[in-house]
Every structure is written in structure tokens, then in C-alpha cells.
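> example.struct
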């Protein structure tokens, strides 16, 4: 991990670079021309210019050796500038990941040093025309080239689809099947038989280069097989999901906030019905405040997960999936609401929010779609539910109840209601065998994400009140505002888990008429409804915080 001082100066340099090289007018023009600013991307990754890629390269290979928390902060900032350019930087990081995770010491030294010293751009070639979410359907093959009984090289043949930096990278990591199983190979730009298609004409992230790749008997020496052992490819890809998904989560967060940070000042100047829109509760409480709460709940989860990964708790793939799911869905909703918040102006290019909306849309698709995230989350937590005989979320609820006793104002008691309800819904799904319906399994994934993020935001509010936030944590909101956010989001999560849990269990015919009242009591529907008391006051308070209004009302601490 880099020091906080180095992180701060990197973020500052990134902002200054963007101000000079990527002002709004330039971004709008590049977006309209559907052009990837290749020179700017190269300068961002050039050690003599910005050198932002150094954050992602370990110190021993000439980089800064950033940790997961640093990656999150940098990715959020990149996304606030432009998600297309952010994707280019991310693709270089992703492309080098199989090397970072699985390469031999010699391969690491060669390729990671080139990334640090030359600013070599990578592309990550996993997806194929028929293998997207299901990489097991991979068709690219790498045939061994033998000299006697020694493998001297491989000939790779196949097609890759939607590859970021596909037309501009200097080196590509390509996933292909060998006789020993799927494996990563490092392929140079310009290798005979290797070509890329023209850039895709995309809905958004039009400043990024996305291209299909074709490999026709492309020869690579045996030392281009990452790690030197066949069949490790899918393992190597799996090992990084925790933090790569956190990075895309940070993209969702940055994208969502960049839209809201345009809508908020706009609404202070736009007068309708004799007053600024920012003073209209029906406007702020629909188009701004709930989105802030969802984004900050996902931030809490991103920060907590990043901290745990950096502390050596493992890859935390499920937590990465929860963070990605909520942050990218929240970012997407926030950007959509921001178009609405600007009315007709929001629908034009000049005001940028429609571009942000088009851009942020990709974050729910790449690096694992939202539906794949729901499945990943649900399958993992289902196992925990079974292993603990249904107690996993009841235990989480009890921990939150204990937190509520010590800190009654952060919404932990309401988040506990969400957790108890979740445990009951999952138990009903087990007893009635409802997860045989894939839809129920995936809906559980969504409910789990909401409940876990609600608990996490309450913990973050407490840490803030006790001055125990991570030293690199985002400090936009103080402890009182975080407590209000905790209460707002916990109410949403509790409603969602109890009502939608009930809906899907009933919808799958898992609850007979005779059991209905008992199940409604088990998910504590009346308590969840009563917990909504005070919601408007909290939203009023948060709107005051967001608009920096002197009239800030003190909200009763107790929820
Ligand atoms: C702009 C862009 C950049 C990209 N960059 C890269 C890159 O650099 N490198 C790379 O390797 N890939 C890249 N990708 C590919 C990206 O990761 C895939 O598009 C993504 O994983 C989804 O795969 P797919 O497009 O084949 O969709 P599919 O897998 O066909 O999914 C289509 C829909 O079906 C749903 N679905 C899929 N499987 C299931 C299931 N089992 N149950 C229920 N629903 C399901 C999905 O959630 C989705 O809604 C990029 C894609 C885009 C658009």
C-alpha cells in the first residue's frame, strides 16, 4: 500500500491532468466523434507524464505498489473524469493481472517492469463471441509446438470479442485452451496472424477503444504461457475478482456521483414555480437524496471490503460481487435521475449527464453482469445459510442490534430488521425448495446485497463518529450525515427484503394461505413499516447537507 500522502498527491495530479487535457468541451467533442484519445491515454500511463499505471505495479518492478484501497480511490477519480478513459487504464491493469497473479518471476520482471517504465498498454482478452458470462464455453485454442518431446511454443487460434484497448494495446493477455486446460498467453501487438477489428460503435464509453481480436495460428514461444503451467487460466482469472470487481464498483460510484454533482448545483440555479428546484422536496427526495444514500451504502461496502483484502483476508470474491452489484446499479440509477433532474437540458449533450448515463451503463455489464453478480452472491451466502443452520443472517442481525444499543442513531436497529427478515426468507426458500427457481436464487442475491450494504453503512457511520475511519477513507460526509444516510438506506433495505422476500416466496407458491400471517410476522413486516417513521425528516436533513444550507436541522439521534 502507498502512504496516504502519495495517494493524495496521485489523486491531485490526476485531477490536474484531467483539467488540462480533458476539459468538458474536449470530452463532449471526443464523445461526439466516437474517438479514443490515444495520446492522452498513453500520457496517463507514461512514467514521464502522469504515470497513473504506476499505482497498479508493485514496487519491486518500478511501480508505487498501491493496495486495493488505493485502487478504489484512483478508480473513483478516473470515473469522475471520464469512464471511457478510465476503462482504458483499467484494461491495462486487468491485462497485466494474469501476469501479476500467475506469472513466473522472470515473466513478472519483464512485463510488469515494461508496464512501469515504458507505459506499455495491455488488453485483457477473455470474452469471445460465444463465451461471455460463461467463459467455460471458450473456443480459442493453443496447440503445442514440439521439438522432440519438449514444448517450445504454442500456436493460438480463435476470436475475442469486446476487448478494451483491443486496437491500441502493445501487449495482450489471451485466454485459450491448451491440452492441459484454459491458460493465459502474452501476445505482442503485430504478431503474425494477429489482428484487430475496427473500434465498436458503442452506446457509451466512446472515449475507450473496444475491438474484436482475431488470432490465426499466432505463434508464441513457450515462455509466453503465463506461469509456465497449462490449465491455470480460470484459477488465475478467479483470483483477482475481489479487487477487480471493487474497481468497477468504484467506477459505478464515480459515475453516479459525477452525474449528481452536476444535478445538485444545477438545481440551485434553476428557478421553477418561483423558487430554485433545490428547495422543492418532491424534487430532491426523488431525484437526489435516495441516490446519494444508495451510492454511499455501496461506498461503505467498497471501503470495508478493500480494507479487508488489504489486511490479507483473501480474495473476497463474493464481497467484490456485492460491492459491484450495488454500486453499479446505484450509479446507473443516479445518472438516470440526473438527466431527469436537468429536465430538457439533461437530455442534451452539452450538460454531460446524458453522456455519464450512457457511460455508466457499461459497469453493470462488464467484469461480470449484474445477474452473474446476483448468482455469485446468492450461491455463496446460501452455503453459509445452510452451514449455520439458518443462523448466518440472524447472527449478523444480533451484531447490529448490539451496535444499535451502543449507537442508537445510525440505523443499525433497522438494518438488523433487514437481516432477520433475510434469514427468514432464506429459510422459507430452503424449506419450500424455492431456489430450484433460478429467479428466486437471483432475487435473493439482490436482497442480500441490500441487507449487507445497509449493515455496512451503519458500521461506517459509527466508525466515523469514533474517528476510526480508514485514513484514506472518503470524507465527504461527517458522522451526523453518515448516520442519517445509514437510517435512510437501512429503511430502504428493510422494506425491500421484507416485502420483496414475501412477494417472491408467495409468488413461487412457497407459502400457503394458512401460513401467510405467520410468515408476515416472521419477516417482521409491521416493525419494518414502523421503522419508516422519521424518514422524511432524515431526507430533509440530508438535502440540507447536500445543499450546504445554513438551516440544517438537528435530527433526533434515535431512529
Ligand atoms: C464496452 C465493453 C468492454 C469490454 N471489455 C472487455 C475486456 O477488456 N476484456 C474482456 O475479456 N471482455 C470485455 N468485455 C466483455 C464483457 O465482460 C461481457 O460482455 C460480459 O461479461 C457479458 O458477456 P456477454 O456480452 O457475452 O453477455 P451474455 O453472457 O450473453 O449475457 C447476456 C445477458 O444474459 C444474462 N445471463 C448470462 N448468463 C446467464 C445465466 N446463466 N443466468 C441468467 N442470466 C444470464 C446476462 O446477465 C446478460 O444480461 C467488454 C464488454 C463491453 C461491452
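> example.seq
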Amino acid at each position: 500500500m502507498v502512504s496516504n500522502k502519495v495517494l493524495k498527491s496521485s489523486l491531485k495530479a490526476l485531477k490536474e491532468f484531467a483539467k488540462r487535457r480533458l476539459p468538458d468541451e474536449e470530452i463532449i467533442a471526443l464523445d461526439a466523434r466516437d474517438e479514443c484519445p490515444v495520446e492522452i491515454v498513453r500520457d496517463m500511463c507514461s512514467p514521464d507524464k502522469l504515470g497513473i499505471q504506476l499505482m497498479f505495479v508493485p514496487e519491486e518492478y518500478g511501480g508505487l505498489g498501491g493496495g486495493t484501497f488505493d485502487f478504489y480511490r484512483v478508480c473513483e477519480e478516473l470515473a469522475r473524469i471520464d469512464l471511457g478513459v478510465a476503462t482504458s487504464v483499467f484494461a491495462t491493469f486487468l491485462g497485466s493481472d494474469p501476469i501479476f497473479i500467475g506469472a513466473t518471476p522472470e515473466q513478472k520482471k519483464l512485463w510488469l517492469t515494461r508496464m512501469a517504465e515504458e507505459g506499455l498498454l495491455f488488453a485483457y482478452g477473455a470474452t469471445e463471441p460465444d463465451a461471455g458470462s460463461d467463459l467455460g464455453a471458450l473456443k480459442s485454442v493453443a496447440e503445442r509446438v514440439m521439438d522432440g518431446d519438449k514444448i517450445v511454443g504454442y500456436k493460438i487460434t480463435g476470436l475475442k470479442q469486446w476487448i478494451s484497448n483491443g486496437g491500441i494495446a502493445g501487449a495482450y493477455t489471451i485466454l485459450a485452451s491448451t491440452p492441459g486446460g484454459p491458460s493465459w498467453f502474452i501476445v505482442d501487438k503485430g504478431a503474425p496472424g494477429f489482428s484487430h477489428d475496427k473500434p465498436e460503435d458503442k452506446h457509451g464509453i466512446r472515449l475507450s477503444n473496444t475491438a474484436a481480436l482475431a488470432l490465426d495460428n499466432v505463434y508464441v514461444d513457450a515462455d509466453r504461457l503465463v506461469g509456465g503451467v497449462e490449465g491455470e487460466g480460470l484459477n488465475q482469472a478467479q483470483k483477482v475478482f475481489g479487487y477487480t470487481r471493487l474497481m468497477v464498483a468504484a467506477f459505478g460510484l464515480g459515475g453516479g456521483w459525477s452525474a449528481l454533482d452536476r444535478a445538485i448545483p444545477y438545481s440551485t440555479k434553476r428557478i421553477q414555480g418561483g423558487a430554485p428546484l433545490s428547495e422543492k422536496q418532491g424534487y430532491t427526495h426523488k431525484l437526489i437524496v435516495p441516490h446519494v444514500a444508495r451510492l454511499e451504502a455501496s461506498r461503505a461496502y467498497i471501503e470495508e471490503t478493500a480494507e479487508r483484502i488489504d489486511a490479507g483476508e483473501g480474495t473476497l470474491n463474493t464481497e467484490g460481487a456485492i460491492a459491484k452489484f450495488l454500486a453499479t446499479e446505484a450509479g446507473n440509477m443516479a445518472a438516470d435521475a440526473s438527466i431527469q433532474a436537468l429536465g430538457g437540458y439533461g437530455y442534451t449533450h452539452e450538460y454531460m449527464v446524458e453522456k455519464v448515463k450512457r457511460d455508466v451503463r457499461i459497469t453493470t455489464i462488464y467484469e461480470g453482469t449484474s445477474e452473474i453478480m446476483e448468482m455469485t452472491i446468492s450461491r455463496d451466502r446460501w452455503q453459509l445459510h445452510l452451514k449455520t443452520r439458518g443462523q448466518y443472517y440472524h447472527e449478523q442481525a444480533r451484531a447490529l442490534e448490539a451496535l444499535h444499543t451502543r449507537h442508537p442513531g445510525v440505523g443499525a436497529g433497522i438494518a438488523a430488521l433487514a437481516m432477520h427478515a433475510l434469514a427468514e426468507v432464506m429459510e422459507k426458500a430452503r424449506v419450500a425448495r424455492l431456489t430450484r427457481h433460478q429467479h428466486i436464487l437471483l432475487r435473493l442475491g439482490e436482497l442480500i446485497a441490500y441487507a449487507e450494504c445497509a449493515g455496512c453503512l451503519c458500521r461506517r457511520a459509527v466508525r466515523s463518529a469514533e474517528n476510526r475511519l480508514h485514513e484514506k477513507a472518503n470524507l465527504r460526509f461527517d458522522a451526523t450525515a453518515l448516520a442519517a444516510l445509514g437510517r435512510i438506506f437501512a429503511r430502504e433495505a428493510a422494506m425491500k427484503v421484507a416485502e420483496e422476500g414475501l412477494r417472491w416466496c408467495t409468488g413461487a407458491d412457497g407459502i400457503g394461505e394458512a401460513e401467510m400471517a405467520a410468515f408476515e410476522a416472521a419477516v417482521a413486516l409491521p416493525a419494518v413499516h414502523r421503522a419508516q417513521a422519521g424518514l422524511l425528516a432524515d431526507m430533509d436533513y440530508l438535502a440540507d447537507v447536500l445543499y450546504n444550507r445554513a438551516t440544517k436541522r438537528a435530527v433526533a439521534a434515535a431512529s
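> remarks
The CA atoms of residues 173 and 532 lie 51 Å apart.
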